[in-house]
Amino acid sequence: MVPTSSIVFMAVAGLMAAALAVVPAIVIWRRYKPSILSFFIGAGTFFVFAMVLESLMHAVVLRSSIGETIQASTWLFALYGGLAAGIFEETGRLVSMSFLMKKQHDRPANALMYGAGHGGCEALLIVGVTQIANISMAIALNTGQLDTLQATLSAEQREALTPVIEQLTTTAPHLFLLSGFERITAVILHLSFSVLVWAAVTHRMPLLYILAIILHAGVDGLLVVLQRGGMDMVLLEVILFVLAVGCAAIAWIVWKRCLDPAPAPEQE
To answer: Hey, how many other C-beta atoms are within 10 angstroms of the C-beta on 37?
Structure first.
């Protein structure tokens, strides 16, 4: 049986992901009136560069003999995973901001709207969709419907389903809720990195693009090291949030020195 509290926290985390997909964009639009297209470019770029291209590379590399070596070493896996995420996602930002958003360079707030789309899409796909699947599976398990389903599956399919069921029944309820808070940290990071790359593109400061890759890789790599080290998940998320605030501070300095737009005047 899956505890009721776990199902409730799954739902809350899913709702948090849905909120993070739209609330930051609404706040940014109300303050600066950027192009809404920037939001969809950010979302689409994340899907193409992270969900498609990066995933294809992982499918090739991690299933090879080299991949086995990488995954066997915490530090190698952290380095590989961090750099992969940093290079693919920040390069996606660079390409989109350089070409797809060329006509929007007059409004720096489009960087924030792009970041909201990037982070919002990630929140929906990684947490929102996952929690919907978890809730469906948990309800099926608690109502006995899963037994009927398993009777129609092959032995291999039932074996693949076993770890999913085990995870749902043994995971502490608060950890499901934690996935929602983790997305807040992720959105802060995506907004920050978007500002850095925007300044790199519009002010011809390529070192800021490199900085975004390094910061992104560092956060993701540290996450791997701490997770594999068995750190308490709550403490881990606190550390990541502090790092996100640090990245936001760097982005704020770049914003004030290079971009610093005044809020758009209220429309009549």
So the answer is: 16
CB atoms within 10 A of CB 159: 10
CA distances in angstroms from 118 to 97, 111, 115, 236, listed in the order given:
12, 10, 5, 23
Residue linked to tokens 């099926």 = 140
Q: Which long-range contacts (CB under 8 A, 24 or more apart) does 50-57 make?
A: 50/85, 50/88, 50/89, 50/92, 50/122, 51/125, 53/88, 54/84, 54/85, 54/88, 54/89, 57/84, 57/88
Residue 233 corresponds to which amino acid?
M
Which residues, other chains included, contact 102 with Cβ-Cβ below 8 Å and sequence gap of 6+? none
What pTM value is reported for the model?
0.92
Token reading at 156: 């291999």
232: pLDDT strictly greater than 60: yes
At 150-200, the pLDDT tens digits run 777 777 877 878 888 899 999 999 999 999 999 999 999 999 999 999 999
Q: What is the CA radius of gyration of the chain?
A: 20
- The whole-number pLDDT of residue 261 equals 54
Torsion, Cα of 180, 228, 63, 44 (10° steps): 30
At residue 34, the 3 state secondary structure works out as coil
- Alpha-carbon distance 10 to 5, whole Å? 9
Q: Residue 130 corresponds to which tokens in the numbers above? A: 């996952």
Q: Which amino acid is residue 124, in one-letter code?
A: L
Confidence of residue 267 (pLDDT cuts 50, 70, 90): very low
**How many C-beta atoms surround the C-beta of residue 121 within 10 A?**
23
Q: What are phi and psi of 106, to 5 degrees?
A: -80, -10
Locus of tokens 């599956």:
153
Is 192 within 8 Å of 247 (Cβ atoms)?
Answer: yes
